[in-house]
Amino acid sequence: MSELKQQLKEKIIEQLNLEDVAVDEIQDNDPLFGEGLGLDSIDALELIVMLDKDYGIKLADPKEGRKIFESVQTMATYIEANRSR
Amino acid sequence: MKNKVYIRSVGSVSAQKTYDNTSFLNKVVTYNETVTRVIDPNYKDFIPPAAARRMAKGIKMSTVSAKNALTEANTEESEVDAIIVGTGLGCIGDSEKFVSDIIDNNEQFLTPTRFIQSSHNTVAGQIALGMGCKGHNFTYVHSSISFESALLDAHMQLMNDEASTILTGGVDELVEHHVSTHRLIGHIKKDPVETMSILDSGSKGAIFSEGSHFFVVSNKKGENAYSELLGIRTFNSLERDEIEKEALSFLKEQEMTSDDIDLLILGYNGDVEFDTYYEALSQESFKNTPKAYFKHLSGEFDTASGFGFWLANKILKHGFVPQVVQLGDSSKEAPQTILIYNQYRGENHSLTLLKKC
């Protein structure tokens, strides 16, 4: 799980072009949207594509994303339970 | 009665340190390359990090040059009636990535960010969003007369009182795939050339580069206008022996002759195959006209003529022709009237006429 969380932090920084953010600055339970990393709706789309492409998870209900993308911890938990690759 | 049109301010990001508008080619940067890139300003001084992270290089460069132009013109963003941009290839970097993603991922998993920035009109759109400008927003994609096309639109709107203040400019960014394809077809020089010696290179092709040049143009002169824009004329195709005739015809429209031109700025890029167009105009009627060139400083790109336009305005404002751009021995102090002639590979020719105001 900790390896997956590290991988997710690296992917988030790279794919969302968070040039000024380092991996160790993202805590597992930091909110990704709003006060935390300050991600927005376009980032949410990027994360949905990332789940599909890298972990084989298709989100059928976009509302699910709200809970899944709360933090790196919630993302990692969901991926561990649902990944197909 | 048509309005007069004035260049109120300039903003530039180029292969020279032109983003700093406090000096005028005091220290020229030379290269020994086949491709050069812009000297980057500190983009964080101009763009919030949250906004910058999705911006392509062309948008970043243009945000800086547009902001510098607006600041110098002392123009409130709300005063800008229109934003008109010329670009040969738009944000080609993200276009390339988007197309690569389509191929690499078998048309699946396409992400929105690269798509948003893969269109040519992203620059004008992003500048307008940043300024909150809801006016006329237009992008001309006309190869190497893209900048002149934008300028011509602005000129006509201002002359006809359809707008009073317009932010206009040209931008192109340089990316790897673009470079590799143009190397393959021989449009980029095969071997590195010292930029100050490009006219002696004796080889085909140009030194490619990138840049962004923006200008506030207005039919109100303001206090510190750089110049009056008298006219622009563009041609998609023109033979070598037609250039002089067209230039004289263009000047005649302004009730001028070649004797009225104090400086002829030419777009020489060191390509032996096509610099002959400039040589053709330099003889006969313009034989004794002092001349200058600029692509040894800016490099070649679709909107490189924006650098030539920037140079002409700076010369008129500062009242001298820097030695580094002078062609030949003849030079006139404090030129009052400047004609710019540019073309790329024998196509898309432009004539632009400015005078001191």
CATH class of the largest domain in chain B: Alpha Beta
* Sheet/helix structural class of chain A: mainly alpha
- How far the N terminus sits from the C terminus of chain B, by CA atoms, comes to 19 Å
Helix content percent band of chain B: 25-40%
Strand content of chain A: under 5%
Q: What sequence of helices (H) and strands (E) makes up the elements of chain B?
A: EEHHEHHHEHEHEEEHEHEHHEEE
The N- and C-terminal alpha carbons of chain A lie at a distance of: 15 Å
- The count of strands of chain B amounts to 13
Count structural domains of chain B: 2
Oligomerization category of the chains in this entry: heterodimer
The CATH architecture of the largest domain in chain B would be: 3-Layer(aba) Sandwich
- Regions of chain A with pLDDT < 50 over 5+ consecutive residues? none
In what order do the strands lie side by side in the largest sheet of chain B? 4-3-5-7-1-8-13-12-9-10-11
What is the gyration radius of chain A calculated from CA atoms? 12 Å
Task: Describe, in short, the structure shown.
Chain A is mainly alpha-helical and 85 residues long. Chain A has four helices and no strands. The mean pLDDT of chain A is 91.
